[in-house]
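pipeline/complex-builder :: batch 7 item 3
reading input block
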Amino acid sequence: MSLVRINKKLHARYGGAVRAVLHDGCIVVQGHLHKWEDVVEACQTAATKYSTTHVVNDIVCDEAKEKPMRLPSLRDKVLDGRKPDVLVIGGGISGVSIARELSKWKLDILLVDKEPDLALQASGRNDGEVHPGIDLSKGSLKHHYIRKGNEMYTQVCKELDVPFQRVGQYVCFNKGYLKPLVALYCLWRKKHDGISDTKLISGEELHRAEPNFGAEFKFAISNPSSGCVCPYGLTIAYAENAVQNGAEVALNTAVVSMQVENGEIQSVETNRGTVYPKLVINAAGVFAEDIAKMANDRFFSIHPRRGTNSILDKKAGAFMHSIASIKEITRSKTHSKGGGILHTVHDNLLVGPDAVETYEKENVATRRESIEHVFAKQKKTMPRLSERDIITYFTGVRAPTFEEDFIIEHGRKTKNLIHCAGIQSPGLTTAPAVAIDIAKMAVEMLEKEKAVEPNADFSPIRHGVPVLREMSDEQRAEMIRKNPDYGIMVCRCEEVSKGEILDALRSPICVPTVDGVKKRVRPGMGRCQGGFCSPPVMQIIAEFLGVPLSEVKKSSAESAITFGRTK
Amino acid sequence: MRTFDTVVIGGGPAGLAAATAAHENGAKTLLVEREARLGGILKQCIHDGFGLVRFQEKLSGPEYAERFIDAFHAAGIPAMTLTFVTRIVPAHNGGFHVTLVSRDGVETVETKTLVLSTGCRERTAKQVSIHGTRPSGVFTAGTAQHLTNLLGELPTRKCVILGSGDIGLIMARRLTLEGAKVLGVYEAKPTPSGLTRNIHQCLHDYDIPLYLSHTVTRVFGDDRLTAVEIAEVDDKMQPLPGTEQIVECDALILSVGLIPENELAESLGVEIDPKTKGPLCNGQLMTSVDGVFSCGNALHVNDLVDYVSESGECAGKNAALYAGKKRREIPINASKMLSYIVPQRLDLDADNRETVLYFRSRDIQNGCTLKMLVNGEAVFTKKYPFLRPPEMERLTIDFSKYPLDAASKVEFDIEVKAK
């Protein structure tokens, strides 16, 4: 779309309040608007889907009184003066998978994340679906990586000892007359876009596979290659494997500024000292635009979009065994996304997410209306679905650009920078494939200075904490014989032993908090939500660290659980 | 494989009583407890008021438990502590194979009968639709009690309590005594959920306000909880827009209901009563699965531990006496005036001369009469000056006095005098 047409449209909609200008190869939208939803709409008006000419949002918005990025309270100089070959910013799935691929080379790799654990933002706050790509068409980076990423999952999850199941996905339709049209769509996707596994199945076939799905479904698109993975489990596993192969992960470490000279990042300021990397990889999720700005390389904008998922009791997990969504043909544009239902690798059901534009990058508070909206829609997919089975819910914030595609490229103005930005769904699916390409780009850049040797000691194999509840009685008895702590049950809902909790604390990236342990071995993930097991888990952590119970944190340094001894 | 006549799962007050009763009635018994010590939740209930019915004494929870633990040990019944049941499967001979995990490894034992005395768990914040962030400082009352009484750690300095269930009221007093400020107890219902005596002894005596028809809708705080949002609710207990207020505090303590734990029972196909969330049982406290008995808070949420022990004794004794006879059961129905009645079934071929029934009224009633109707005709009546939902009622009925057969319709109803 030409700039003239964009400005015509903007003028028609907002009067003279906003206008678009071309600057440094970007469409910069400027002006002043009251409401954030108008800002999003204005930028969307200026953007072309999948275009590499990005919209940069410079609109002043009255409503969007965004808080500054939350910084960890930790202040030290542990990293001061470090000169890593590569600094990866962001401990989500993108950052850790890149770090792991880079650890195949003899490189000094430092990954930083401002949070007290990995995968604390979008990578840990999604439904864990490994997508088939049925909704993606050629020409986007999302499409470029989706099939490769999907196919890599079998191997990657085997190497990293992460549960992954190709449970298959159904897109269900209740209007029979749409069948010929959808059949054509599937054929097009298959032939043109290479979504090789997609097929159409009848209502009978669908109900044979999933008897609890809505009776009125006439047919469905079936994608057997879809799967589910534990998204934070995979992120942690990738990071652990990177660390085993020599990378360093620094948590509670935020990038606060950068010094850029002659189109190169000279140094990066963190709350733990100044770092002098040869190359920086921007995998900062919702903060990718902020990092780009610090690096003097801001050519895109992120418009955060939050989504809420509910987790249902394992009893409801028995209702269905795949991933499902309903396709309704409606005219309503607003709130059309109500997610789907997914049977997780831990046998819960996950329902959601919705999609709501927000200027708050770090507001992950849940809202009642999100749950209501999602359930209203998903009960059509499976009428047995009930809010009564909810054990918890969570909100994540996605990091899309206005072009709704990934940004995987070198800095446009800053040389020693690679962006892995705009990563939203299906970013979890594509991550293994994207990481390989970014690692290659990084190595090529570093090789301009000096040759980069392969890491001869690299091992792709990571062993997770043994999961005793999945073992046979004989295996379990053998484990307990070697370590009786495996026989002490701490979490009754999820059957987690003291031995497994101690293993998590002794893992390559020790996060000795109640949430850290919960993410790794699941005490507190069940229907009592830690009611019974949180005090004993606290005791195990306190004993492990040699600190009083009041020093045990839920997550961040400020999230103590108790205030010291009683009278 | 070790074999037993009765395996009791859960070493709280119900299980201790059940195991002792099973042993006294001649059963070779094993008690399995997942924690290191017997006594169940009583271990952390250091307040008094236990045993008034049974011993006519005010005991603390640990004191009450001690009496049963002593009797249990005196009888020489084997107990496995720090032992967790991972699986129960029916055996070919009509019994059950119970798989146990402990520090000693994995063992499967065989038993003719089972007593499930697995207690209950607390409803959580998300189950009562509380939204907002996920800070530290959101506790169920039982967890706060565990931290305070067993670990000696103070979980709050200034808190709001949601729900006027008994543990919430007890914790309001307990935390006040520890120097914490309890800003108020908020209850979504228009009437308190806990025992009247606890409202007086735990709230009024300490000037802790009770706000009825109010609920907590949101929590705030990125790290530690900093505040909660409170709203008034309508008669359907839905928050009323515009009534929200923010109360600054460092913890939210929830006492919003207990749910009987019946995951093992369900794995055996035991039918669950949607009203009690416990197994449907007959007068012998046998569930819908032959040889499987239920008692205590796993059967239904009791108000007093004395009744928990009583149901344990009933289940334990009947498990020991179980002879595998066929049952001929009719339902014991509860009218809409009752929130539930336990047991829900009567085995016409069993000894029902002293059947103990527990029930709760659905609403507060003053000057009313409980009626047992057989085929629509009142055959038994009992007058009550008042009935309150938080207070469970107990009743013994000699069913042998009434001519009952497979076609009989038995119903309990509450008649209220017209004003």
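note: The mean pLDDT of chain A is 96.
queue -> next item
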